[in-house]
Amino acid sequence: MIVFKSCRNFWRVAVLAFLMFAAGTASVFAGPDEDYAAGMIQYERNDFTNAMPLMRKAADAGHVKAMIILATMLDAAEVDDQAATYYRKAADAGSLDGVYGLATMYASGDGVKKDVQEARNLIIRAAEGGHQQATWVLAQAYIRGELGIPEDQRSGKDALKWITLAADKEFLPALEALEKAYRSGGYGLAQDIAKADELKLKINKHRGVTEKKPRRRGEKK
Known about the structure:
By secondary structure, the chain is mainly α.
């Protein structure tokens, strides 16, 4: 009886020791999904020191979302060559965020040789895939003449296409450009005051402007 009790205690100690060992080594054997999840906890706490190695481990194991977060942190830390590398890896894996991130690197010349044409090509690629921020940036480029867009193309069909898509995604500068175009007949559009007024209401809503109703004669202020 005493021997049996001693054996039982031995196995309890052994099991406890195993559990403690497993808990201590869980992070070592964690897969990329677990590393990404643990890294996101640190990232959302703004603890980039602990987030970065977890994200790098997941990214190097092929986790695409980890590549984007890691590239973002590296970009913010001005480790531009590595940021561009991870954005490119994510882009090659089909991530639109990766395509857009790489475009920003080419636009600024950080981590890669500055190439505005390549930046524009990548932004178009991301926008055609439905990336909202890329769509906004492309529309703004047509409105302001950025990303090397030739002057004679700023009022053509491509300009109208991207400005309209950005307006549909509630991008204020695009709404303003489209409202002006309908009011004056720009971008090859027929003048449409009713459509312009409809867009004006959306613009005012974005700006927090309340339309005042005209007072009738005799009404007090």
